[in-house]
Write a structure and sequence with these properties.
Number of helices of chain A: 0
Radius of gyration of chain B: 13 Å
Order of helices and strands of chain A: EEEEEEEEEEEE
Number of strands of chain B: 11
Order of helices and strands of chain B: EEEEEEEEEEE
Number of strands of chain A: 12
Oligomer: heterodimer
Low-confidence stretches of chain B: none
Structural class of chain B: mainly beta
Shape of chain A: globular
Distance between the termini of chain B: 33 Å
Shape of chain B: globular
Structural class of chain A: mainly beta
Largest interface: A-B, 25 and 26 residues
Mean pLDDT of chain A: 92
Chain lengths: 115, 113
């Protein structure tokens, strides 16, 4: 079945440091890939997505490129801020019959940014 | 509504009691999903609906768990004869027709003593 593997956290960085959170996946066919972010006390919300190979999703300074050859979708940001502290979830959707979508999530990676 | 609303936000119950968790999705969202999230883990799929039809319930752990969405809007996840291992955050999400982006509620945290 489909699965998503994320690097273990927490990731602890100083403000303005470069961020990478690794994500690899296993799926049949050609999934769509997502990063969701969860701030304390809130639900998960979409950060960015990519729907086909070599697509780059970007939002709020974060980027991730859909790499089919390495089955990866690593999240990057050039300069993190304290407000980026949250839990980040990598996810995929493989369409099943009838156009139904059941997202599969990774375990999440906690990011802590210090001033 | 403006977002996905879940209630109660916190529920503490004794082992053996039944609990019902409610989800009110975004108006017009056809698909509704239930996930369970243990501490330090990602959301684990339980079941989902398109309109009032339950499309997939393969993630429900056992027959103590059930879900319904009788009018294609509000959904209820029911856990009968709760056990301590049922303690978790239960998350609801909805999506609009043809979309593959989910909007999540803040979740219902269940603690079974």
């Amino acid at each position: 079945g489909d699965s998503v593997t994320q690097m273990e956290g927490p990731v602890t960085l100083s403000e303005e440091a470069f961020l990478t959170i690794n994500c690899t996946y296993t799926a049949t066919g050609y999934p769509s890939l997502f990063w969701y972010v969860q701030y304390p006390g809130e639900g998960l919300q979409l950060l960015l997505k990519a729907t086909k190979a070599d697509d780059k999703g970007s939002n709020k300074g974060f980027e991730a490129t859909y790499r089919k050859e390495t089955t990866s979708f690593h999240l990057e940001k050039g300069s993190v801020q304290v407000s980026d502290s949250a839990v980040y979830f990598c996810a995929l959707i493989s369409p099943v019959g009838g156009g139904s979508y059941i997202p599969t999530f990774g375990r999440g990676t906690s990011l802590i940014v210090h001033p | 509504g403006a977002g996905v609303s879940q209630s109660p936000r916190y529920k503490v119950t004794k082992r053996g009691q039944d609990v019902a968790l409610r989800c009110d999705p975004i108006s017009g969202h056809v698909s509704l999903y239930w996930y369970r999230q243990a501490l330090g883990q990602g959301p684990e799929f339980l079941t989902y609906f398109n309109y009032e039809a339950q499309q997939d319930k393969s993630g429900l752990p056992n027959d103590r768990f059930s879900a319904e969405r009788p009018e294609g809007s509000i959904s209820t996840l029911t856990i009968q004869r709760t056990e301590q291992r049922d303690s978790a955050m239960y998350r609801c999400a909805s999506s609009s027709p043809g979309a593959n982006v989910l909007t999540f509620g803040a979740g219902s945290r269940l603690t079974v003593l």
